[in-house]
Specification:
Layout: H1 3-13, E1 18-19, H2 22-27, E2 41-43, H3 48-60, E3 65-68, E4 85-88, E5 95-99, E6 104-107, H4 113-121, E7 125-126, H5 139-145, H6 152-155, E8 162-168, E9 174-178, H7 190-194, E10 203-210, E11 212-213, E12 217-225, H8 228-239, E13 246-251, H9 252-258, E14 272-280, H10 282-297, E15 302-307, H11 311-322, H12 324-327, E16 334-341, H13 347-361, E17 364-370, E18 375-382, H14 387-406, H15 431-444
Parallel strand pairs: 2-4, 3-4
Antiparallel strand pairs: 1-2, 5-6, 6-10, 7-11, 8-9, 8-10, 12-14, 12-15, 13-14, 13-17, 16-18, 17-18
Helix pairs in contact: 1-3, 8-13, 13-14
């Protein structure tokens, strides 16, 4: 990047907040995909005014700007594919307001999601979206990708809690969207437009979110089953009767790689697990928990139902669940991690399809995820240095996506499109709809300087 541009950036944010060494640039060159693209420089703004000045400079020169949270994304959304400037928003990490009576909070984009969740608990409130990376991912990144998590089955995803935004546009203008009230229909709903836009339309600098009352009680159950198909089929049956706040699924391979973290001994022929949580008042949770145990005892394939008896056991169960993705690298050095969604009744079909495809292509493929809302994480494990494995992995990914669309599903539930799925967007989005999306991108960012080469083929 030109020295004059670097000098101007240093005037805007201060010398220590512009990083240009090889070591610093490498730290911002990758994300959860393990793909790497080196930026030319990194800027660390400390206010929306500084973001505005940076974007004015970028539009004038011009040069590309890639907004970045914690870099935990799984589809390459924060990768600087064309070099340029990475705008890392970690300095904007303040919880500006918690309005307990109106159940609203205002936060900056660099706030760690888990930190927000812990802070609002002190007020008897909770923020339901809970991605597996909650202890290090940021609110801005969650909004850019419309993150979900296990609680989505009952409480919805990030977009259901974003009431309003402050956004800096590609030309430096600052706009405000939405409201902090429960109702508001003044003008277009621009808030929803920015949620899930992956930093391609603007840089989020302030967030208004809604909160919920903290449930009084919670019970957690681990269900052992002897068949993946029976476990997948059981999901829809549970949801027809109960309202769990989480309903997670793990196949045999997923169980194997985190077995040492599970606090209960498992029966030798366990082939799948369901992790189920109920929340609400003490009386309601106690009654629903008893009914759930009785309900499960009569279902085919259920071998055991264990309840977490204390916080340590429950925490251990969730540690095991959240360790599945990183532990997958015990199996192979690389993976294609897909977060497809199908109607809940189609979960057995897609799980069986993944098993059949693995056998046909001689690949290791395993599944786990948020079965309660049909969001299954399909992990295609491979060694990219093995040409045939890599080729078969690409074939498996395309076949998986085609099957998902045929079942009435969607290519991504919470990871977004980024650069790793953009080639497949046409499987789901028709030509006219995609043209409208491109028109929106061009209207907000006519020079294509904000996070270019993302989402669209």
């Amino acid at each position: 990047m030109d020295r004059k541009i670097i000098a101007q950036l240093r005037k805007i944010v201060g010398p220590v907040n512009v990083l240009t060494t090889d070591e610093d640039r490498r730290c911002y060159s990758y994300d959860g995909t393990t793909l790497e693209y080196m930026p030319e420089a990194i800027v660390l703004p400390g206010s929306s005014a500084e973001i505005s000045q940076i974007m004015c400079l970028a539009a004038e020169v011009p040069f590309t700007v890639v907004p970045r949270g914690a870099g935990s994304g799984m589809t390459g959304g924060s990768l600087p594919l064309k070099g340029g400037l990475v705008m890392a928003l970690g300095r904007l990490n303040h919880i500006l307001e918690i309005d307990q009576e109106n159940q609203v909070a205002i936060v900056e984009p660099g706030v760690i999601t888990g930190d927000l969740q812990r802070e609002v608990r002190r007020y008897g409130l909770f923020y339901p979206p809970d991605p597996a990376s909650a202890n290090f991912c940021t609110m801005g990144g969650n909004i850019a990708e419309c993150s979900g998590g296990p609680s989505a089955v009952k409480y919805g995803v990030t977009r259901d809690y974003v009431k309003g935004l402050e956004v800096v546009l590609a030309d430096g203008r600052v706009i405000h969207t939405g409201v902090r009230t429960d109702k508001g229909v003044v003008g277009y709903d621009l808030t929803r437009l920015f949620v899930g836009s992956e930093g391609t339309l603007g840089v989020i600098s302030k967030i208004i979110i809604s909160l919920r009352p903290l449930p009084e009680a919670k019970k957690t159950f681990l269900v052992q089953l002897g068949s993946i198909t029976q476990a997948a089929a059981l999901v829809a049956k549970i949801l027809a009767v109960f309202s769990p706040c989480t309903l997670e699924f793990m196949d045999h391979t997923a169980i194997t790689i985190v077995a040492d973290k599970i606090p209960f001994s498992l029966k030798p022929n366990t082939r799948a697990l369901l992790l189920i949580e109920l929340d609400g008042t003490k009386e309601a949770v106690a009654a629903e928990g008893d009914n759930l145990v009785k309900f499960l005892a009569a279902k085919p394939g259920v071998m055991a139902v264990r309840q977490g008896q204390n916080a340590a056991e429950v925490d251990a169960l969730w540690i095991a669940r959240k360790q599945i993705s990183p532990a997958a690298f015990k199996l192979k050095p690389h993976k294609l991690s897909e977060d497809i969604v199908v109607p809940r009744t189609k979960i057995p079909v897609i799980v069986a399809f993944a098993e059949t495809m693995a056998a046909e292509l001689d690949l290791l493929i395993f599944t786990f995820g948020h079965a309660g809302d049909g969001n299954i994480h399909v992990n295609i494990m491979l060694d990219k240095n093995e040409a045939q494995e890599l080729a078969n992995g690409t074939i498996a990914k395309e076949r998986l996506f085609e099957k998902v669309i045929a079942l009435g599903g969607t290519l991504s539930g919470e990871h977004g499109i980024g650069c790793t799925k953009r080639a497949y967007l046409g499987l789901e989005i028709d030509a006219n709809t995609m043209a409208v999306m491109r028109m929106l991108k061009a209207a907000f960012d006519p020079q294509n300087i904000l996070n270019p080469d993302k989402i669209f083929p």
